[in-house]
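Obj.: predict assembly geometry.
Materials: sequence records (below).
Method: joint structure prediction, all chains together.
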Amino acid sequence: MKQKEKRILILDDAATVRLFERTILSEAGFHVDEAINGSEAIEKILLNGHYDLYLVDINMPKMDGYSFMKELRSMEIDQAPALMVSTESEEFDREQAFRAGANYYLTKPIKPEVLLTYVRILLGIGGTR
Amino acid sequence: MSTLLEQFVLESQEILQNLTDKILLLEKNPADKELIHELFRGVHTLKGNSGLFDFKPINHVLHRSEDLIVAIREGHISFSQEVADQLLHVIDFISMLVDEIRQTGSLKGEYEKTALELSQLLNSYVPSNQKVEKTKKGKKQTKKGKKQKELTKEENPLEEKVREFLFDIPEKIRIGIFQEIVAKKQLQVVFYHPEEECFFKGEDPFYLARNVPGCLWGNIQPRKKKLPDLIDFDCYRCFLDFSILTTATQDELLEHFKFIAEQVQIVQLSPYSLILPKGKANGGPVYADFVNEGLVLLEGGE
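Observations (raw structure tokens):
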């Protein structure tokens, strides 16, 4: 599958962060969708089908990142990669993120090139521009 | 102004208004856990957003505000009127900065110093055991049955800490320093508490401490906490605190520590603080009075 056909779902309650991530990923040619929390993300998956990658914030109202990951891993067959992101104060939650089913973990603020690198690696398109 | 910055200003204004409302509600219901959690989430989101830009004064203050709210959430301190006032003060400060960003598209004013003062003030409410343990969720430091109390600044043991530090300087060196600097009347102690994760942020605490301008004396202490068991011990974490005696001005010190200003406490001292009588005084109030009177006279320049 080509990069432009890859669909990414961003989960974050902060509109500023969503816009930041969306801009970087869209400019890199990905198809991007957004959800403001875990439950909205689940609704979008049920409506639009599975995504190729999930960019998941931890601290969100209603359904947080961990709960979303557990839900996602219980409903999904293809186990699409998930990149969890959070602020530095939650750095110790890394282990919990992996246990919940995340494939990798990044700490905010994320540099655009770092985000793109890990997204590409997790999508198996490393080196593609 | 970029679309991202516009979004940041818009969302910040919403969150700041929301935080003010929550604090006012908490003043009426200080034990409302849901409100405290919402307060945390607001500050947390604001911090995450501002981290996308180079707005250090906003980041520093939010970082400390978050620590303070965590201390309340974990039951280490209560939500008191004093705490509410400080948080409202923080909101005013950040609102002012966000307004400048809205008007000019950037932050040009000199806010580092105010941000540092605010951060230190917020920090003074957070119990020191939490500062170390704050990220280990579920491991509350408050002992069961221990009566929760409201911490106030008066209980901050900073003065005692300064005294201990000065007392540990060998007398001969201490008096030598006194003689050297008494005319300059400029003396400060810096307490530098590096974050445990500092090595992963490109910081070198030893180098930074060693190169404090005007450094006269310093010491390194292991942090006053139980180190993890050997099997859990992570040698890539910093468990040390630094204390430095210096003739540098506050501005010079703020410049030196500008990227980690919230990790330092600066205390201005009189050169006469270096005169600390030691030895046995044969006991009795007469001797204590003599020492106190001597110090008062010295301080008064007599």
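Conclusions so far: The domain at 3-122 of chain A is CATH 3.40.50.2300 (Rossmann fold).
To do: check interface contacts against the pulldown list.
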